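the two lines:
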Amino acid sequence: MNRYAVAAIYKFEMARTKRTIFQSIISPVISTSLYFIVFGSAIGSRITEIGGISYGAFIVPGLIMLSLLTQSISNASFGIYFPKFTGTIYELLSAPISSFEVLLGYVGAAATKSILLALIILATAHFFVPLEIAHPFWMLFFLVMTAITFSLFGFIIGIWADNFEKLQVIPLIVITPLVFLGGTFYSVSMLPPFWQTVTEFNPVFYLISGFRWSFYEVSDVSLLTSFFVMSGFLTFCLLAVTWIFKSGYHIKQ
Amino acid sequence: MQPIIQITDVNKVYATGFKALNNINLSIKTAEIFALLGPNGAGKTTLISTICGIVDATSGKITVEGKDIVSDYRHTRALIGLVPQELTTDAFETVWATVSFSRGLFGKKPNPAFIEKTLKSLSLWDKKDNKMIELSGGMKRRVMIAKALSHEPKILFLDEPTAGVDVELRKDMWELVRQLRNDGVTIILTTHYIEEAEEIADRIGVIKNGQLILVEDKITLMNQLGKKQLILDLKEPLTEIPSTMADFNLQINNDGLQLVYSYDKTEEHTGISTLLQHLSTASIGFKDIKTDQSSLEDIFVSLVKETS
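prediction for all of em together
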């Protein structure tokens, strides 16, 4: 294991976050706080409880997931796309480092950043809504696994993208709608039967459901189902990354 | 002595079908300066990129210190430093951070003293806290070299190292290259400046259309292929070469006011004294006489033309 190389990539990526603290941390915290203010404190007080939980508290896990998913993808995709764009990837390709170590550095840093952001948002939520975490271990487990899985997914997008537009297109037109329609703001049981069936095809729905369960022991599907869906997506991402490194897709000529 | 790099039957065909390398065989000796010359698109960068692991060879084998670059990539890549042709840098990183990053990436533990020494040797020490975006092109080029040297490589690839740099910096770099060679580092450079190869290289390789058309010791090459000329500035214009001198390789230039005699300097009898006697007999006077030797550039141009 080339641990110095993994550490170099990890530190390099974390340093980029430090340089862009407004974009990386402060901006997502502010935008999520606005959700807490509008839907939690203002409108939320006029909405009835869902499953015995106040609306403001109900949306917290979903909003954390929204930030976690988008930031994991954004951090990892930008992290690997930028060296491709500037040409500095030559250094990575000529270094004595394995594909796994490259992945460890980039995905590790991307996941760390989004987990930190999620924890900051969680702490911020305390200022706006009453919050409790019934199963802190499971909460952390879902947080870490989701961050790793979607950082891997972001890494794949970063490899696939050959311009900045492609880098943005998946998070904007796929991930954000999936999160919004995956039960962030409502329980799926509130939907008509047809849309309940449609929602079952949304993988993010299972993540939000499992994550919400770790807070309030309330969920739309069983914990086990959430766990299997997340593991399935993680496996898919790992297989895709393995193929990318074996084939040199969009990396090597 | 085992070559530090051994390239055997290497071919590279890109996905587009373009054959960039055509059966390349080459041995690089330890601590030599090897200059790879060739016109644009000849395959110089592809060859370097293949040895460094950036491009996969379609077939053939490359070893570094006897180890295969594919199966033993950790060992071989750790020995190599690469300065690419393009100034590809992380615009918002500081000089210190980007050079330290390179050292880590190549598996070396942090060594601030070595980074300091490297930056000082490249006159970059006072720029260590500057962001890359704030540096001039020449300074960026130095940083690229510092990055390549940061992990103390045994082999250094310099792909067009002095492209676009001023004369002073070019001479500084030549000095640095010589110093590195004296320290035991093997240098392989590609260049468009033939003058550069002539100045610093020990051996020359010429590549064209993906084929190595010549590999030779620089001095031997210049002796073997170099022509020498005797140039006479005549007092009166000469319309044709007298028949008594028809056996000499003569040429009339400059509206008949210059007579040029090309000869092989390696021959024991160059024919100069006989020619001068003939000129005297024919009453052809001259006011000045000088000699000229073909440069590596002339040799390179002639070689590339010959194979066209």
